[in-house]
From TrEMBL:
Protein name: tRNA-2-methylthio-N(6)-dimethylallyladenosine synthase
EC code(s) of this entry: 2.8.4.3
Annotated binding of [4Fe-4S] cluster 1, by residue: 11, 47, 78
Pfam families: Radical_SAM, TRAM, UPF0004
Superkingdom as given in the UniProt entry: Bacteria
Entry-linked SUPFAM superfamilies: Radical SAM enzymes
Residue ranges of domain Radical SAM core in the record: 147-384
Keywords tagged on the record: 4Fe-4S, Cytoplasm, Iron, Iron-sulfur, Metal-binding, S-adenosyl-L-methionine, Transferase, tRNA processing
Main location: cytoplasm
Keyword Methyltransferase: no
Family: Belongs to the methylthiotransferase family. MiaB subfamily.
Length: 452
């Protein structure tokens, strides 16, 4: 059977989608390979959040095809959804599959291979483009291919987003919100726990608004909190995370969940996007900086020691120096433990891309604000890292370090990376304590704590 390589760009949901497609190939008898050089089928799972991600994917496919043309080439994911048949014309790939058709990928590859073997492509190019909507497609992302001793896994609980922030392409590439049944998700988590998984991360484009259109509230608890409670009861699961949430999804019931669900990890990623109320309104973000500040304070009160991280965009169209300074003031006040700082870039098909060119900022201004805010983020974050020196922290060991294969790495409950000397057979997939000795940038280093 042919060998398949899938290259993934973008978010954790893309990683999870790739895992599902890979499992489906394996079940059909294909062999997955880690490199494209020996693959008969090369697919790229794409991201459209920034133009750079799209250009990387197109460039990667160009490199693959220049080196040699595999039997089948194709794009999946968000860029495939937004560009469709344009990608066939531009890159000469055989397959373009949108975000609601991952479960069709293997059958389409089969069809293309049969067409080539039957010489159907001698006179006219044979390609497949499928970017149509499909009901219940969210239920197709449910299978896992686990590595040996894998301790953590992603679980997709929904697809789509209804918020339509003016800078974001996701609602147009992922479609409207669609949630999976709680019982199906819980059973998937149970199967993972039976295979030794100790931590699950629940995935959704707007994860804490899960199920709001499909399922009722019960005893004042939203469908998402009901799901958290159900997953919390699964034996063997010791940590629960979720990403990416929206500030308006943090209702009273979700904040209270942190007071009585100890398996919820002490970390929330809470995208603020701007500290200026005027810019938030332009972005179509339905909260103010004051309401966001109050939300962070209530979350921190519910679970003392919780780490709060965020996303922010600098240089959004119309952002004045005063607007930027309001963002900077918010960051100085809230002291996030980390932040992804993005320079605004136009995304074709979004309202922000159509805003008056007169209010589009220069790259120089964006870069200056980016660097200034990063410096402030680092200042506050490293204060938290200083406090950990000499302390014991609980980690879940995920595997070898990405920068040094002779060492292992894990994550704390607050989602900080820890690198240490360890025994792969004994430590990978396990939860234990490490004493922190030092840190570099956003990586902690330490030694395994042994008990007498």
């Amino acid at each position: 059977m042919p060998r398949v390589h899938i290259k993934t760009y973008g978010c954790q949901m893309n990683e999870r989608d790739t895992e599902q497609v890979s499992q489906m190939f394996v079940e059909r008898g294909y062999t997955m390979t880690a490199t494209d050089t020996d693959a008969d089928v090369v697919l790229i799972n794409t991201c459209s959040v920034r133009d750079q991600a799209e250009q990387k994917a197109i460039g990667k496919m160009g490199m693959v095809r220049r080196r040699r043309v595999p039997l089948v080439t194709g794009f999946m994911g968000c860029m495939a959804q937004s560009r469709g048949s344009e990608l066939v014309e531009k890159t000469k790939v055989d397959l373009v599959v949108g975000t609601q058709k991952y479960h069709r990928v293997v059958e389409y590859v089969d069809e293309i291979i049969r067409a080539k073997e039957a010489k159907m492509m001698d006179e006219e190019r044979f390609s497949i483009v499928d970017i149509e909507e499909e009901q219940a497609s969210q239920n197709a992302i449910r299978d896992h291919t686990l590595k040996e001793n894998q301790g953590s896994a992603f679980v997709s609980i929904m697809q789509g987003c209804n918020m339509k922030c003016t800078f974001c392409i996701v609602p147009y590439t992922r479609g409207s919100e669609r949630g999976r049944p709680i019982a199906d998700i819980t059973e998937e988590v149970r199967r993972l726990a039976d295979k030794g998984v100790k931590e699950v991360t629940l995935l959704g484009q707007i994860v804490n608004l899960y199920g709001r259109h499909e399922f009722p509230a019960v005893d004042g608890k939203s469908p998402f909190v009901q799901l958290l409670e159900a997953v919390h009861e699964v034996p063997g699961i010791q940590r629960i995370r979720f990403t990416s949430p929206h500030p308006i999804g943090y209702k009273k019931d979700l904040i209270e969940a942190f007071t009585y669900l100890p398996k919820l990890a002490e970390h929330v990623h809470l995208p603020v996007q701007s500290g200026s109320d005027e810019i938030l309104k332009r972005m179509h973000r339905p909260y103010t900086s004051a309401k966001f500040t109050d939300l962070v304070e209530r979350i921190r009160a519910a679970r003392p020691g919780i780490a709060v991280t965020t996303d922010v965009i600098v240089g959004f169209p119309g952002e004045t120096e005063e607007h930027y300074l309001q963002t900077r003031e918010l960051f100085d006040k809230l002291k996030f433990e980390n932040a992804f700082v993005f320079r605004y870039s136009k995304r074709r098909g979004t309202p922000a891309a159509e805003m008056d060119d007169a209010i589009q900022l220069s790259e120089q201004v964006k870069e200056a604000r980016n660097q200034d805010l990063l410096a402030l983020v680092n200042k506050h974050a490293w204060t938290k890292y200083e406090e950990l020196l000499g302390q014991e922290v609980e980690i879940l060991c995920e595997g070898t370090s990405k920068t040094n294969e002779s060492r292992l790495m894990g994550r704390t409950r607050t989602n900080k990376i820890v690198v240490f000397e360890g025994n792969p057979e004994r430590h990978i997939g396990e939860i234990f304590n490490v004493r922190i000795s030092h840190y570099e940038n956003f990586t902690l280093y330490g030694d395994v704590v042994t008990r007498e």
